[in-house]
Amino acid sequence: MPPCPPALTPAEADPRPSDVETALHEVLDRLGPSIFAGLLDTEGVLRYANQAALSAIESSPEQVLGRRFDTTPWWQACEQSRQRLQQAVASALRGEASRFDVRVATSSGALLAMDFSLLPLYDTEGRVAWLIPSARDVTEREQVQHQLQLTRHAVEQANDALLQVGPDGAFRDANAAACRLLGLSREQLLRLRVPDIDTQVDMTHWPQRWHALCESGSLRFETSVRHQQGHEIPVDVSVSLVTSDSTSFAHVCIDDIRERRAAERRIRQLLQFDQLTGLPNRQLLFERLGTMLQTTSHTAVLVLELDRFKRINDGLGPHIGDAVLREAAQRITATVRSTDLVARRGGDEFVIVMPAPSVPSLHTAQALLEGIARPMVIEGHEVHITCSIGIATAPADGDRSDTLLRRANAALHQAKLLGRNQVSVYAGMPHEDDPERLVLETALRHALRDDQLDLHYQPQIDLVHGRIVGVEALLRWQHPTLGRIAPDRFIPIAEETGLIVAIGDWVLRRAIEQAAAWQRAGLPPLRMAVNLSARQLHQPDLARRIECLLAASGLDPRLFGVEVTESMLIAKFDQAVRHLQALRALGVEVSLDDFGTGYSSLSYLRRLPVDVVKIDRSLVPDVTAPAEDVSITRAIITMAHGLRMKVLAEGVESEGQAALLAANQCDQMQGYWFSAAMPAAAVEAMLQEGRHIDPALLGQRDRQRTLLLVDDEDNIVAALRRLLRAEGWRVLSACSAEQALQLMARHPIDVILSDQRMPGMTGVELLRRARQLYPDTIRLVLSGYTELQSITDAINEGAIYKFLAKPWDDDELRAHLREAFALKELADRNHRLDQEVQAANRELAELNARLQSLLAAQREQNEREVGTREAAQELLDAVPVPVFGIDDEGLLVFANAPARVLCERGGDLLGAPAVEQLPPVLQPALEGQALFVTLVDRRWWAMSRALTGHARGRLLVLLPQSGAAR
Question: Fewer CB in a 10 Å sphere around the end CB: N or C, the chain?
Fold first, then answer.
């Protein structure tokens, strides 16, 4: 309340107080506007009250003076304080002073915490003559003490270990969690210093640690602390420097990471070791083999595969097969040295790496053959199995992990061709003499003839609506004895031998026929994409052959596409561009495969007639890079859209990648997360059941709206939650700006309602950060404090949508929040519409570009046809005999110069029926009869021939005969 000027208040009707009373009044009035004071007689009656006390209850002196002090308005709100006053009055009359805390009421009904004193005042004879009550407002001090108590409780009850450390490294305070972590009592812990518990710091290092903290203001590191029982505990430590006036200390938060370390060890075990046998898996094999090759001059790699293992799984069951694999792993490990690496690469295949072998690797391989061949007794079954082994050595056969393993695989294949249960050493032979390649080449020549090739189809998904919009045809080869052969093994052989041309033609024909069959079956429109080889792309009649296949099958060209790689275009760029332009003119979609791993520059990309850019699978994980880091994937998407091209991401392996690609406007995706390549029947089933990506993942479906409440007072948050419970919103809450930012990072937030005065960061500062990081949120401030300038600036710059005052009106607050959510809903709808418009514009631009290409091709075709007709006209005009052209409707459509002279007419004879324009004697010739006729005093041999091909009708020729007409 505003201070009022002190005033003398008469104690009784007598306006002339005594000199003593006057002096007391002056003293009491000079105590200040925050001190309540008065004067009581020995009956406890109030004779005087200073202005501060009267202003608190908005009373005049006449309303309270002359009344017993304990019946005045100050004491009406708290019976306990009134009783305590009555006891103090009784004590004061006995000459005893009293001081205690009370609650007194103000005119507004608020209760103030007061530090109250009642002092006796004696007369000249030593008797109590007056009682002087006085009180000081200690409400704020009590609130601070209460807050300190709450803070202390929060620190004490925290799960993390919290400590205070002085500049000398001594512990000044610690909570219960810190004591539990170290196994010490609080008294024991406060007698220690940091080097007593930190295993990585001693007293000589502590000054450096403190200096580093003072320089940076905070530290974060991992270390180990000593438990009272002697063992060490790994911990994560966060340290913040706290400075108040001239005092500084470190606030330390210690997180026990024993569970995290155990989880990391478990994850490492899962990622690097085979769960069935406990051996290193493929990943760890490559890592350790690479290390050995760098540190060891001579290394042998043995690839061991169990022979005909499938018959054990099929005949005895997978559990027996697993037991056989475990027993085989144990026998292999027991046969080799402890320094050798034994790994399971997958299935029934093991790899042994022998750095600096002490005996020839052939001897070890022979011992392995004998060890595996010994009978195994598993669950009452006697199992007999053998193995085949291939060997490659470094550096003779290569100094890279992949090279050695590939060549050991080639030797293993040779061992199986020799009848199995054999050892084969890689001989370092060239490709034309390599038995594996020779066998595959021979088998590949029979694959087409024997119908061993097949096509599987991997779905391509639209990332706007989540539907399947296309498939990529992928070649598969199932050999009757060699089994399934991977494309990366036989495609290079096909390219080197030229077999790729015949295989490519087969793929084109089979894929187009399959797509046409789906079209006839009435399945949803689906674009079939086929990979072209370099040889196919450079064939001069590629476009014509594809056009014939499309026409023969009846497939709409818009449902067919070809894929080419960057490396295929470089050698004969201009020729490749012409072929791709011809394909696009047919309506065929052109995709640039493996983009980002080849050689083309942006200038090349602008010139390429490409509809779709396919991001290589190696770049797809890059989409998860933080927003502040450079993402190649996001850059490719933006660049392709700028060039009016669609973007398809290959190798999508997780839901997170798909969601991020959709959020970054990628048009389509394919990968194992949605589906692997499948046979045609499986694709049909998938289309019929309407399998798609959940629109919620792509941000197309409405989600529950989310409100974030930020306030450091729990009772405020609880009240707001109760108020908004019936609104149907998802409500999250945070007690600090830091916690609010963490929630924003983990959850999609629509509306933020924040308090202004919070420790660490004000509400305005928080909402400014939110605007920078999440500009689509609607941000409001709810506060009882008005910092006008900062609030005004924040509203003007758009950081705050509205400022609401505490205490709030429930209905008005709900109305403001509903308005904010409606505004967010409108903004989201506009954003979705903008995305749809952009997608429609891209499709329109694509269609327009395709139309322009078609028109250009048609103009070029027309120009060629016109040029051909003009050349034919000039050629026939140069023929020295009359020539007439009659179309299939009998109209005269052509006459060369000698013909016009013969008829003695100009070009106006064209366009009329030939029987009317030509002499009647030529009528039999028009019907196909050859005969002699006489025209213009000359004898002519007349004959006509029917035209075939694009032209229809007949050509009539008159050949002059020697001599005059008879």
Answer: C
